[in-house]
From TrEMBL:
Gene3D superfamilies: 3.30.300.30, N-terminal domain of ligase-like
Similarity remark: Belongs to the ATP-dependent AMP-binding enzyme family.
InterPro entries: Ac_CoA_lig, ACAS_N, AMP-bd_C, AMP-bd_C_sf, AMP-binding_CS, AMP-dep_synth/lig_dom, ANL_N_sf
Signal peptide: none
Superkingdom of source: Bacteria
Name of the protein described by the UniProt record: Acetate--CoA ligase
UniProt cross-references to Pfam families, sorted A to Z: ACAS_N, AMP-binding, AMP-binding_C
All copies of domain AMP-binding enzyme C-terminal, residue ranges: 519-598
Alphabetic keyword roster: Acetylation, ATP-binding, Ligase, Nucleotide-binding
The AMP-dependent synthetase/ligase domain, residue ranges: 70-462
Domain Acetyl-coenzyme A synthetase N-terminal as annotated: residue spans: 12-68
Lineage, highest ranks first: Bacteria, Pseudomonadati, Bacteroidota, Flavobacteriia, Flavobacteriales
Amino acid sequence: MSYYKIDNLEQYFKHYNKSIREPRKFWGKIASENFTWYQEWEKVMEFDMAEAKIKWFIDAKVNIVKNCIDRHLARRGTKTAIIFEPNDPNEEALHISYNELHERVSKMANVLREQGIQKGDRVCIYLPMIPELAVSVLACARIGAIHSVVFAGFSSSAVATRINDSECKMVITSDGGYRGNKTIDLKGIVDEALEKCPCVEQVLVVKRTNTAIKMMEGRDQWLQPLLDDASDNNVAEIMDAEDPLFILYTSGSTGKPKGMVHTTAGYMVYSAYTFKNVFNYEENDIFWCTADIGWITGHSYILYGPLLNGATTIIFEGVPSYPDFSRFWEIIEKHKVTQFYTAPTAIRALAKENLEFVQKYPLASLKVIGSVGEPINEEAWHWYNDHVGGKRCPVVDTWWQTETGGIMISPIPFVTPTKPTYASLPLPGIQPVLMDEKRNEIEGNQVTGSLCIKFPWPGIARTIWGDHKRYKETYFSTFPGKYFTGDGALRDEVGYYRITGRIDDVVIVSGHNLGTAPIEDAINEHPAVAESAIVGFPHDIKGNALYGFVILKESGEYRDRENLSKEINQHVSDHIGPIAKLDKIQFVTGLPKTRSGKIMRRILRKIAEGDYSNFGDISTLLNPEIVEEIKKGKL
Ligand code: WTA
């Protein structure tokens, strides 16, 4: 019996039970039957949750790109691996076959080696959603360089922080990027970032927009001439199972972003397995995930998961609103997409537009539709199910995280009955538990608590780059012996999970995780600001928006408040990126604090939500009177 594919509910339970009783046998069998290895493992796994040390497929040797591309060539060489759909619908879509992808990745891998990049070196990739982004990622993985993709919407200082944290030697970027009717000056942003990044020796530049840019001699080179001269014969690096594959930054509730490190074999097995099952992938399907490759969703379900299964995956450069709100539906129709995977924020934004945009297209090719990134509200779930899935396509509400590498809790289409707003059941190998405030596991159903996972799975991130202590503290110390997700969840009467949202200081705005601390730091750098506190509040389309409470310096010259708000938002945009801008800024004379000086965010959150019903006991505050003032001034 193969464990790779789940065909019905009975099988799901069978596989699930096997994966819990004998996890090593379960994952060992999947790994050995569905991938090609230079050498198999000595032991399937080893772990010590207290020390946050987890290893999978110990001593195995493998190359993930050989598994993504080379091994498919005999059977699927002429099959399309990647469909590139440009921002401008009048520009022709590109179909890149597995043979062509092999050639392009091999050349790029040779270019990287010729430019001095070796196994273990970090390469920052700051590119728009164009084929070169996929090719660069895969070329790094082929030669064992660790890719660190930075979302091309981040500002120069956010790029610099990420480059410096992992000491990248090289940056791959482009002259610019198209997004809707805008052109983004990516190279300019990189130039500014690199003023603060002494570790970067070289920049390779892809030509996309033909924007006039500055090239710094000795540092910057156009990529195309290098590719033209490169051989397409490349020998892939033999990687150890636990060699780092990539670093991907995610926001923490405090301080600088966390560079989550994923390693080779476990990530490979887990992203492939989850893709196959959660999307009911079958040969000749056309899979489209609308995420950006700058996020984990794009890593696992635009690139690795689909390519490992020999699928056809779409890379879309543009945005859902350009040239109009039917763009997604037009693309599904044009490429006969079978699986569509997007975020609740996009669904809500499109649902608020005229129904005709979606009704114009029959969308008959669709088989499964998915959601990821934040809780999907009931209304959005139904709109998606009715108007996109035509009530025929199972909606897979997939819960997972950058840290988990792949989907953890999700219905399996045509197997698990769906229930709106519920991510439903854990995938085989995943053991979720709910914990109470006293750190005890909550048994039974119809309960809520902090969501933890009590046993390792192959896709879990192994550490935070350069800071294992932080990894251990963030994920393994709140509930000793368990991985803590930072999310709250509810388990219903039949054991289905519903994720209720973050319980730390991370706010998810339009599907992007934003730590409040770095935003506060950016605001506090404004010369007129003394202190600030940021909380999230519900927003119809973005899911959450940011509300800032700002104390101004007493001695400061007071400019008009409106201008000051704009300047503060400009600061946020410069330091983090436009996605982190605040929707509301309220100037206050104080913030509610505990006697130990901690800001009581719980109270600020309630005020921002407009819920004055129960602040709890505020008499223990250092300054209880401030609560009334803040309430009065609420925006
Ligand atoms: C949230 C994205 C509810 C959650 C893959 C998690 C979700 C965080 C869902 C991780 C979902 C993701 N329902 N909440 N289906 N999917 N989340 O690292 O709070 O960008 O902890 O990974 O998004 O976001 P990240």
